[in-house]
């Protein structure tokens, strides 16, 4: 297990800045997911950790050693790509053994490591088959096996499940997490899929436009998104954001929402323009409420349903029980679970601190 530390990492390609002043710590044995939309800088960050890209400025430390200027092969890190990069003319056994042969590891040790990796990945029965005719799932396991046999300091994975179908991707999420736990490895994993991140991560780092917006556990990221972008990106359906009337002052415990008072957790900061953030499951539907609306759609999901409600402040989504009955066009009142209300500065789009709430983490990693 190794600790990876990124110190003010910055990467430019000509006039384009791909990664800005990133500071993160990946704790030993942690499974950290870099999450964000395409082009947010997550893959560039991973490639810099691997040594496949050199940073414009900043440092990369592995177990306290500065590896910023070292080549990829000198960092003792295994990289698993989205495209499996296997040799189709070779057997599974030879594909897995390939990196060890390049390092001139003794034959007996190679054989033992390959067999051990195959048992762990449950692919002993295909060791002597060519990889060209294997299913996507089996090829993924072979690619993982090739990384495992090296026994590296850390595993780096760049959207390794991106080419798999949805059902098998869900299964492989579980398999990857079990594998991580069995190896007690340090893993950095890149994805744009929030479901993968929430299913596997010890820590999630949300990035956008080259900047780390928030770093924390899945619980912290979901329940206390540090910015409006994080609240919109994490959660399905995403967090609701509603404009508050006027400013919010320090110590405030109530806001005006379309002229109606709404209780909120006591605010420890002031802002001229404010957004109220609330997850759909914390919107309460009833005959009365500080905000009124009309049901325009109902998404029935078996265990629950999501009502889409048109209000004077825009669309609000509310999660309700599967037996709730509200026809399209029905008027409805909306209120909010006070302890779950979050307030955001509408200008900076950052979360305003509230009394008694643990601070969220941004930019400096977790663990």
TrEMBL record:
Its EC number is 3.6.3.-. It is an enzyme of class 3 (hydrolase). It comes from the Bacteria. One of its GO terms (biological process) is carbohydrate transport. InterPro entries: AAA+_ATPase, ABC_transporter-like_ATP-bd, ABC_transporter-like_CS, ABC_transpr_MalK-like, ABC_transpr_MalK/UgpC-like, Mo/tungstate-bd_C_term_dom, NA-bd_OB-fold, P-loop_NTPase. It comes from Pararobbsia alpina. Residues 4-234 form the ABC transporter domain. It holds the Pfam family TOBE_2. SMART domains: AAA (SM00382). Coiled coil: none annotated. The keyword Ribonucleoprotein does not apply. SUPFAM superfamilies: MOP-like, P-loop containing nucleoside triphosphate hydrolases. This is Trehalose import ATP-binding protein SugC. Keywords: ATP-binding, Cell inner membrane, Cell membrane, Hydrolase, Membrane, Nucleotide-binding, Translocase, Transport. One of its GO terms (molecular function) is ATP hydrolysis activity. GO terms for cellular component: ATP-binding cassette (ABC) transporter complex, substrate-binding subunit-containing. PROSITE patterns: ABC_TRANSPORTER_1 (PS00211), ABC_TRANSPORTER_2 (PS50893).
């Amino acid at each position: 297990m190794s600790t990876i530390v990124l110190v003010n990492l910055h990467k430019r390609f000509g006039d384009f800045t791909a990664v800005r002043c990133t500071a993160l710590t990946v704790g030993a044995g942690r499974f950290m997911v870099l999450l964000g939309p395409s082009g947010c800088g997550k893959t560039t960050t991973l490639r810099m950790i691997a040594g496949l890209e050199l940073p414009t400025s900043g440092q990369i430390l592995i177990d306290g050693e500065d590896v910023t200027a070292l080549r990829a092969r000198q960092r003792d890190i295994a990289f698993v790509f989205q495209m499996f990069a296997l040799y189709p003319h070779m057997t599974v056994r030879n594909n897995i053994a390939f990196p060890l042969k390049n390092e001139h590891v003794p034959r007996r040790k190679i054989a033992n490591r390959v067999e051990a990796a195959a048992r762990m990945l449950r692919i002993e029965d295909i060791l002597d088959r060519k990889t060209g005719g294997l299913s996507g799932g089996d090829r993924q396991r072979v690619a993982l096996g090739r990384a495992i046999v090296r026994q590296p300091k850390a595993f780096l994975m760049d959207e390794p499940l991106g080419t798999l179908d949805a059902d098998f991707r869900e299964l492989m999420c579980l398999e990857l997490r079990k594998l991580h736990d069995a190896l007690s490895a340090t893993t950095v994993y890149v994805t744009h899929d929030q479901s993968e991140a929430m299913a596997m991560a010890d820590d999630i780092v949300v990035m956008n436009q080259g900047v780390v917006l928030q770093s924390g556990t899945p619980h912290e990221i979901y329940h206390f998104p540090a910015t409006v972008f994080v609240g919109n990106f994490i959660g399905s359906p995403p967090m609701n954001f509603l404009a508050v009337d006027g400013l919010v002052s320090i110590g405030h415990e109530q806001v005006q929402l379309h002229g109606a008072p709404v209780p909120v957790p006591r605010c420890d900061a002031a802002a001229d323009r404010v957004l109220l953030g609330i997850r759909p499951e914390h919107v309460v539907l009833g005959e009365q409420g500080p905000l009124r609306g009309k049901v325009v759609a109902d998404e029935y999901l078996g265990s629950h349903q999501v009502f889409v409600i048109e209000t004077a402040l825009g669309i609000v989504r509310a999660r309700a029980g599967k037996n709730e009955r509200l026809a399209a066009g029905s008027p409805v009142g909306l209120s909010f679970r006070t302890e779950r209300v979050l307030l955001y500065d509408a200008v900076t789009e950052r979360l305003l601190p509230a009394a008694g709430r643990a601070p969220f983490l941004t930019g400096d990693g977790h663990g």
